[in-house]
Amino acid sequence: MGLRLTPSRDQGCGVRQRSAAQRAPSATAVLVQRAATAWRALDRRALLECLREADQLEPPHEPYRARKAMLEGGLALAGQLEPRRLERLYLLLCEAALTALEPEPREPELLNYAGVAFYELAARDVAGTLFEATLRLDPAHPDARRNLQAARSRRRVPPLAAATVATVKRLGGRARELAAAAQPVSGLRLSLCMIVRDEEEMLPRCLAAAREAVDEIVVVDTGSRDRTREIARDFGARVIDFAWTGSFADARNVSVDAATGDWILFLDADEVLVADDIPKLRALTGRTWREAFQLVETSYTGELEHGTAVTHSALRMFRNRPIYRFRGRLHEQFAWALPASLPERIEQTDVRVEHFGYLGVVRDARDKARRNIELLLRQAEESQANSFLDFNLGSEYLAIGDLAGAVRHLRRARANIDRDGGPRVLQFVPTLYVRLALTLRQLRAFDEAIEVLEEGARLFPDLTDLVFERAWVEAERGRLEEAERLFERCLEMGEAPSRYTSMRGCGSHLARIGLAEIATKRGDTEAAERHALLALEEGLAHPAAVLFAASVLVRRGASAEEVTERVERRLAATPTNAFLVGIALYEGGHVAAAEERFRKVCALQPGNDRARVAHGEALLSMKRWADAAATCAGVPDDSPVAEAARRCELFARLAAGDADTATAALERARAVLDAAELAVFEGWRDRLKGRDPGLLPAASAALLCQCLEALLRVEEIDTFAQLVPLLERCTIAARERRELLAGIYLRRGFLDSAAEEWIAACHEHGPDPDALIGLAQVAYAKGMLDDALVFAEEARQRAPTDARCIHLHQHLARLAGAGSDEMAAHPERP
């Protein structure tokens, strides 16, 4: 038998398909076993009776499962029969396949099996028609295209009995009729089902994109206090009020229960269908041989200007059947009800959805991660622990920066993979390996991270993200050559296949950024710039690549004009690109050029609050106090960047010495800033008015130090001197106060003042590693390498296991051994 029947083992489902009957319900198994007996006896009557009895099995999956397993049983028998019986077997296979197709001819797998049977009896035209029908329904069928090519080629076959030829001719007419009927269904309806609460900002964009794609919109509102319900009704949605029960599955099921369409599409308010893909989405409704579809979802993560994104397959569309309902308080699932042993019932599509709910500013505004953790912990109390629950908990702890919580749950999830079904069954497992390794790297547990990555690579050798994460582990361990090799390997592999949840760019611009970072560590600025500009091209002006390319040039000392020439002129003139280049210029000290770009962005996008805050901070750096205050005052209280805007405004008014307008601004800021931050600005205001500011809480020290350092940065020495006494009013230890002030002086280049603070700390409280490290840095900055090495050695002796002391001493010792030329080549502070 020369044709392909089922996907190969490399495609991961061939063996499972052939053993489906072993795991099927008992009624199906019994019927398939009867059919196997009929096949061995070549008993036509008994076999056709079994195929017809399949109609009586439990719908919707068991009739198809049984017919498929019966045909596979006959095909498997072909390799066991002598030639004289083989002709009878294939003849019976032709009739059996057509009988299996008669209840529903829209079955690609069964059409392909029928084509194989006719092909083996030299009916190439009929076989070709059946293979063409298979491909019409499923263009990506793993075997039908090869089978069609074989049917169109010339092939010598042994002569057949005249009776066989006549029967094949008769069955061929029936086969052509069934192949012609194998067409997508028209006229089926698609219902969009959503659950929402306080989504007036996100919902309009979602519904505007989806309205033309669906026949019905059902929105379940769980208690909105804004205009969410009105917006949904404006788009023609049927709105159902449902009291929140603490379970997303409960709310989701209410929406599905109310849907009247043949298919269900479910989205969240922060998800948007890509307009170009709507015709493809509509076409899916005619594919009744499928039970569910996976869409390609791109989730944008991090902060807006970073533009990082994760791409993964999302199961978002399914047949409207009573058996498909959701489970789980959070990360609710319905896949448990799908026929896992019939993978052909689920199709991976290229229909795209963009997800904006994981952007940093959105997550911060809603505190999503903490809410998710609370729901997941409640779910853990109510149900048996499982690896998926631990994976989700670990992911949420990672999102809020709780590395200890993240690694605890991710380790537990990894330990229970086999118990819960194994890495080939659980779809989240590839992402689990990546996230666990990332968490371990951040904890600097490099050996365990590599162990996890090696195990993951054995299971998922084509997942680029694992190689990408391994490259960063090696880079942070200082093994630059190995890191470089791995980043190059990422470029060779390209982006991970769509079946994985993958960080977009691991096989392109993010790997280039890694290579540029390696080149920077080596001091090879030319290679760093080359890779940075290639990242810009390979990322197709991806925000991460734009920001990085501009930053590399600025760090090297490029002028604003050179950045414009080498970066901006490669890009489309969009507000986003201007904003990103402006950030790089601002961080590199090109304040005037950055301010110009931020101003243009604000003019083009008046509602871009992040650009307004960035513009305000640039104006602060130019000491344009009134302009900075006015720019940030317009940012509304409910903006995700309202806190930064209020700090900027208050700083500007107080730096200008305007205590009265600062008082009014303080009253507005009470709705946004916490008490510790308000205390800083109130104390500054009181200093301006000549009043005693009183004591400040310890938590005020961080913001106060930021204000002091900002004043030194713009050389407002008198204002700095006026504000420094406020640090004495903070309820923190005297040694910590000295340390904070010394650090400010060191970073702003006031080396003598920094040394005085650390020396005073040593006299008053005794030498400690922090003060000695600080004095070593001051000595190094003054070019006094021998003195710096003495201080570093003293710090190392006092804290022999402190990584900072070890690194500093090693660095200075290396420079001392290399001589003055090496020191001149590395003038930055160690």
TrEMBL record:
SMART domains assigned: TPR
> What Pfam families is this protein classified in?
Glycos_transf_2, TPR_16
| Identification of the protein by name | Tetratricopeptide repeat-containing protein
Question: Per the database record, which ranges form the Glycosyltransferase 2-like domain?
Answer: 191-299
